[in-house]
Every structure is written in structure tokens, then in C-alpha cells.
Amino acid sequence: MSLPAIALPGQLLGSSKDYEPGPGTHLHASNVYASLPGRPTTTSSHPPSSKQQPPSKPTLTISRLPSTSPSADVGPVSERVSNTNALPTVGDVVVGRVTKCMMRQVNLAVLVVYNGSGEGKDGGGSSYGGGGEGMVCVDEVQGVVRKEDVRATEKEKVVLGEGFRVGDLVRAVVISLGDQSNYYLSTAKNELGVIMAKSENGNTMYPISWKEFKDPVTGETETRKVAKPF
Predict the structure, then answer these.
(1) pTM of this prediction?
(2) Coil, helix or strand at residue 65
(3) Burial 39-57 (b: 16+ CB within 10 A, else e)
(4) CA atoms within 13 A on the CB side of 22
């Protein structure tokens, strides 16, 4: 599989048979995933030091995008992330950071908008921000995930404090323009939810199930509403 021009946290980049995980990536279930948002790059493999040793695999790393650049020139125009101010519309997929977690709703600061990418097929080929053009929100855009919009089933059992924490990066879809200050968002799909989270110890975690992240340093797990990797 080819590498994307822009990778989001939790996005599948390739198999561990083809790549060694480097800075900004992590290994899970024999696959290499992005841990940071940015540009995937590879370093050349080294020839074996002896005939008995196989050649080493290229190392896959994630380079952060420069925050001061007006546009990140990291690929074809259709795959660039531009810094033109984006306003979401219904059906758009957004990536936002959790700023407040309450009993009835979770507040997000929307960072990136993928126009129309929430209309993918659920069974296969769902885009959900995995490709196309993402637009950075220059001005502050606020979104809300209400308790009833976290998942599609057993909504009455949802505990927001177990699904989200302040600072988490969340992939969600816009379901309503809401009121004058907030867009209404939903994570009620397998592909939607937390895509990047840090543990209580400050370490970047990786997903191990649909409801848990694991701290690679301490081995401790924390509950989240985990987004299914691409």
C-alpha cells in the first residue's frame, strides 16, 4: 500500500513486514500506525553486513507539518492540507481536540475539516477523513458531542468520562449546524471516536480494542471510545 500525503493519528501506514516503526509511529498487531499528524517519510534500508543477514527494512517516521506555512506542500493539490479557514457543513468529517468533558456533552475545538468525507460506505471504502483534502480551521470553531450521539446502541449506558478525556484528538462527523456557537457532532460509527490520546503519565498511547488504549511505557490501559483505524 502507498503512503498517504498526510497521516492522522491511528491511520494504518503499512505492515511491519515492510517497515520498521520510527518516531511518530507505533507498532500494533504486526502493522505500523501513525501516532502523530503529519507527513510520512521513509529512510533507506541498509544492506546486510553479511550474506547470512537479510537486508534491513526502511524505517517509517512521521514529520510534523510546519504551523507557520500557508499550505503544506506535501503532495498533489487534491491531497494537501490548506490553511484556508474552513467552516464545516452537515456530513463533513472533522478532527478536533477535547477541551471540556461534562456529564451530558463533550466540547471540541475543531482543527481540521474534511469536506463531505463522512459519506463513505460503511461496509468498505469508507473515507472518514482518510483521504482527500483537509482544511485547517484558522479561526476557532467549536463542536459538541452529546451523550446520545457517542454511539449507535445502548446510548443510555454511555459514560462520557470513560470515552473521552481533555486533550484527546477525536474524529467525528457533523450531524447538525447546531446553535450559534457549536456544531453538533457524532461519533456513532466504528471509524469515529478518539484517534490519539495521552495517558495520565503523559505518554502517547495506542489502541488495543474498540474501548481501550494502552500506555507503551507503563503497560497500563485506559478506556476511550476508540476510532477504528483506517
Answers:
(1) 0.66
(2) coil
(3) bbebeeeeeeeeeeeeeeb
(4) 16
